[in-house]
Specification:
This protein is α+β, with helices and mostly antiparallel strands. It has 22 helices and 33 strands. The longest helix has 28 residues. The radius of gyration is 34 Å and the shape is elongated. The relative contact order is 0.07.
Amino acid sequence: MKLLLEWDGNSEVIDSDSPKTLGRDVTADIRINTTKISRVHARIEYTSVGWEIVDLNSSNGTFYKKKKISRLPITGQMQINLGGTDGLAIFLSPITSQTTSVQKSVVDHGSTQVIQMQQLRKDLDDSDANPGRVRLQNRIKIGRDKQNDWVIDSLSVSRYHAEISQNSSGDFEVVDLNSANGTFVNGESVKRRQLKGGDLVTFGSVTRRYTQSGLEPIEGLSGSTLVIDNASFFVKDRALLQDISVTLEPRTLTAIIGPSGAGKSTLLNLLSGRISPTSGNVTINELDLEKNHKLLSQRIGFVPQSDIIHSQLTTRQALSYGAELRLSNDTSAEERTLKVDEILEKLELSERQNLLISKLSGGQRKRASIGLELITSPEILVLDEPTSGLDPGLDAHVMETLRKLADEGQTVALVTHSVDNLDFCDNVILMASGGKVAYAGPASTVFSILKKESWAEVFRFLASPEALLLAQPRLNADKVQNSHTDHGENSHRSWLRQTLTLSRRYLRVISADRYYSTLLLAIPILTGLLCYFSGGTQGFGPGHKNKYGFFFNSDARGTILVLILGSVFIGLSTAIQEIVKESAIRKREQAAGVHARAYLLSKIIVLGLITSFQALIFTSIVLFNKPLSPSGVLINNSRLEITALCILLTLTSLTLGILLSSVLSSPEQAMPVLVGATMAEVILSGALPITSSSILQFVANLVPSYWATNGLSASTNIVGIAMVSDKHSKQIWAHSASTVTNSLTYMAAFCLIFTISSGVLVKRNRR
């Protein structure tokens, strides 16, 4: 008794006295090296009751008619799916004595179509049991919603993603329905395109080949193969990487190790598309990563060394906000919740979902960061030292998690200094000083190939000039044909919706940090009290009569100064660290599709509300129980006009602080910059009674505090109550509506300029 197996253009006949194992490992009797199939997935054997297929505790299961099985008798012609209900189809057919000669004849000629299987395949193609091929009709709609003709259950696909329709000439056209992640034909983003035979059509993360029979599954594209072919990377004349050629296949975990300065992180950035090679190329499934970055970046998840998650949020909150930001606009709250639940369970964080990130262990925090990347179900996951700083137990747990992710079909690569848990990896890439690959292959053969006895000797060797002379063993690196298609912008996620989500998350982060919240409240109170007691008692009233019988307010200019100083300090101190302290989080979120303007606006909106409230408290304290002018220049209430000018100066200083924070490279630089910027604003404001040169007066026009001083001086009639005699000061502080209006206009213009400049810097500095 024999059994015929057919799969993906291959076939094999099994004898009843020879059971066979199926899997992707080289030790499997029938090797099927494709995604979602375990190393040793299943066994087919002949027992007393006949042929049976047995699942060997595979990661993604064995299915018959969309039901998971552990053991199933093979009673006739059947289709089994490995690795999921839509996994690789295996066609099984017992060979009886009547059909043996026919079967053998067909198999001996290498055909993949056994006569008895042809009708089975046709029946399956015409039923829901085989969702692989999609038959084309006059018009079919494609998307995640159940109302579509072809329903793709993936959050990378929009509810109504695209449609394929037949035109008057009988040809089929694909039309994108303003989907979130776009529709691609042969790697090119399209809105409408006539299809030709052999075209690869991509909807989200799903790719099919167009043929006369319909849209056919491409088994080679399930999972992503990443190839670096003869790539080098130079900074000026310095080579960081030289002649790198390696291949990373689906379902593999690869560790990149080597001494400091060997180019490990540079190689990781090359793999993730964060940098492009100076020469050579990087491809994913034969598409050039640089030229097709908008398409291929959706398939890559990147976890930097520093945590990319807000420690003030709970694990569930962090993942939920991440889902809102990264998934398409038409993803429902229920779908996002289900996705978060799935990730929490997969990463063994369900029991920690309501704990603050700051309360998690180092390994759990790293898994939470990985969870953010899993939201979009990337096929490639790259990590920069995910086990750095972890004790051996946590190190092993993180590596075990990455091993599971690789077994489930992802291509995983990581930089690590730890060699204790390399047995979890399929391959290692050893980088030598100078940016060359000294070895690429299984970890088990490192010592024998390099003729070393310990990892200490290996690292000493990699740091020596001798390593550069070693011929580089290539890891299945074959020359690939590149796509030269260029892609434009492909982000249909609403920046307004992202702004609202980021604002809500930011408010939650601030409210969860009690120390920071208390500090935000304390700053205007303490600053206001200090300024209140140092600003005199005459406020902006007429003052006291001098010996000549004229009223003179000696405190007025001092009160202007403390209002300027306090407003500038509040705005700058609140914002000076806001961009730089979240640099890792911001860059990763921008790479994942978060708009730079959404990120920036969320900061300005939330901090603008906070600083406006702070300025209101501050001015209320400074002006408390002090005489003021009967009315302002623009409005009848002098107190309200002064407060409005101070609030606008605070907001302008806030946007200046955000701009400065966008320039800084580390939070440690913020304090000296805060002091310097505050001093410059106060000195150039004109509120200090000092003699300034013409150059200094010209520079003063370029700072917001100068115009705020003009506005406050005009509003309070400082020229009259302080008996200002300087001609220039009398001119710029004239008690008129035009002076105050100019002040408001210039400060608003500074706000706009600072905001636009910050947006340009944040968008440009996204990698």
